[in-house]
Description:
Elements: H1 8-39, H2 41-55, H3 58-70, H4 79-109, H5 114-125, H6 134-144, H7 146-155, H8 158-178, H9 196-208, H10 213-232, H11 247-260, H12 269-276, H13 278-295, H14 303-325
Helix pairs in contact: 1-2, 1-3, 1-11, 1-12, 1-13, 1-14, 2-10, 3-9, 4-5, 4-6, 8-9, 10-11, 13-14
Amino acid sequence: MGRHRTINYFQWIRAIGAVSIVFLHAIGTMRNTYGANALGALRVGFEEGLSVGLSRWAVPAFFMMSGALMLDPDREMSWKKCLRHVWRLLFVLLTFGFAFCLIESVVNHGHLDLDVILEAVDSLLAQNSWDHMWYIYHLAGFYLITPFLRLWVAQASRKEYGWVVLVSFLLLQGTRTISAFKPYNIYNIVSMRECISWYLAGYYVHKYVELDRRWVVAGAASLVATIALDVGLGWGWAVDPWRIVCAPYAILVMLLFKRFLEVPTAGHRLIELLADFSFGIYLVHPVFQHLAVTFLDLAAYPAIVVNAALVLVPTALSMLLVWLLRFVPGFRGKV
């Protein structure tokens, strides 16, 4: 197994996906802080629909990229290497994740003492860090079972692999979607995080699937359905990456990158920087968005100005903070 070339369109996904997630959280931060009544129903509905199209593909794409790289039988991926990936995520949880839990506990209680610290530890263990950290918890678990998945992927035919990916979406995300209409979660045969479907699908989509008319139609229908359910009917669960509603759209976006952006990022300095800092941007940008709405009355400004500011400023400050952290022993290579 030799050295593998950079998959160029993955770099573009990292860069653009990171910014799209900052935009998603900018919209959510404003809505959660001021409420729909203060912002206006028309603005909230328009921004929510816009965020579905511009942002809801990003986390599935990040899961798929990880799966494409980690499950590729031609890439060297020993147990030791897998555990290094797991440790990177655990390190992030023990530092950023715990810091977020501690901040929340201090804010809730108004002081810092041993009980507050222990509460933060409990929150971290219970996966109750800030909302966006769920992705880190999930991915760490997927990395732990990667050596077992690789053994199967290496010997599976395209047809076998495709059926397993399809069934995983139906049994995991499909039943979770139907459960939105029930007071309980439908039994889905195995107890597993639904986003494993994205992780499994990554290598399959990267290796076997190409953009064609069927995916354009399916993806467009998925996007329309997601917006209709979310904005039209108020079923916010439809946008969750563990529901099957937006799955064809996320795969369509992945295929669009694959078809049109399998080109080097050399010469696109901003894209190179965003791709390099994408993981760090994901981790820390909510801090700056929360600080902005804490100290400024952003509802007093035009929506387009506020949204632009809540994307551009946190992205830039996140890159600066991550750049500084890379000089701190232990953080280099992890953020």
